[in-house]
Amino acid sequence: YAIDTQFLWGSALLISPVLKENQVDLDLYLPNDIWYDYYSKYMRVSNGSIFTVNAPKDTIPLAIRGGYILPIQDPATTTTSSRKNPFGLLVAPDKNKEAFGYLFWDDGNSLNVWENGFYNEIHFKLYNTTLSNKIITNNYSDETIILQHITIMGIQNEPNNILVNGNIHNNFFYNTTEKALYFSALDLDLNMFFNISWTEISNN
């Protein structure tokens, strides 16, 4: 707890800003867990160790803790505009190939939405080679929430037989260097149940 040059945003995102002029690498402390580099998707297994990472001038070192699913959305010049952009999911499996996350969504303006139940709460779950969602609360219907792309890190073997809601989905890419699986053109309504599954080709 003596480290004051890094901080967690929530439980999953570790932010380690560069604080010295002209510094291009950084000694990064990672707590005991699996962590993924936000940019390279490289997986590190830490027992509470220090790692040296690249820190180019145009990036802030970010690490994502295994076991979490982070909803992401492309930015825009205003909050009103950004709310219209589709969502993505950034999935960081833990050692058991599981991850969990959720999205809380309201109109962005009203007061007491929690007390009045005027919001949507959507949970996401990765279990081995299946990613799905569960609608917990669905009381805000003024906007359609679209899931367009997903990145799943830590996929050690090449995937095949990609199914989205039981249908073959060909808009995916597996990066063998990053060990990451990318889905695009999903066009899924997050207020409706979805199920994405695949199998992995064994290297044995």
UniProtKB/TrEMBL annotation:
Q: Which SUPFAM superfamilies match?
A: Glycosyl hydrolase domain (SSF51011)
Q: Name one Pfam family in it.
A: Glyco_hydro_31_3rd
InterPro entries named in the record: Glyco_hydro_31_C, Glyco_hydro_b
Can you name the source organism? Sipha flava
GO molecular function annotations of the record: alpha-1,4-glucosidase activity
Q: What's the protein called, per UniProt?
A: Sucrase-isomaltase, intestinal
The Glycosyl hydrolase family 31 C-terminal domain covers 1-70
